Amino acid sequence: RALSREEIGTRVVATRATAGIVDRSSSGGGIEDAGNGVPVFCLPGSEDAARLGVDIVIEEAPHLAGLAARDDR
Fold first, then answer.
1. Distance from first CA to last CA of the chain, Å, rounded?
2. For the whole prediction, is pTM greater than 0.85?
3. In tens digits, what is the pLDDT along the chain, a chain of 73 residues?
4. Is residue 60 within 8 Å of residue 33, measured between CB atoms?
């Protein structure tokens, strides 16, 4: 949101971007092993904001994959 704020000012409060890790073992999908998380992203609707979000996700992908694989989430 800080990057968005630089671009659009206080309208950043309406971006509503969020992210998290869904634990597949508790989703009823039959996977019981710990560390089977899946990163999930909800990006803003505007094209420019979504592009910025994708750029950030790609840059952070290795870190996010590591978080998803952890057993202690």
1. 24
2. no
3. 555 656 667 666 666 778 888 887 655 554 454 467 888 888 878 888 888 889 988 998 888 888 888 766 5
4. no
Instruction: Tell me the backbone φ, ψ of residue 23, rounded to 5 degrees.
Output: -85, 105
Write out the two tokens for 44: 């803003």
Three state DSSP letters for 8-57: HHHHHHHCCCEEEEEEHHHCCCCCCCCCCEEEEEECCCCHHHHHHHHHHH
Instruction: For the chain, give the number of residues.
Output: 73
Kindly give, in sequence order, each residue whose CB lies less than 8 Å from that of residue 23, ignoring residues fewer than 6 positions away: 36, 37, 73
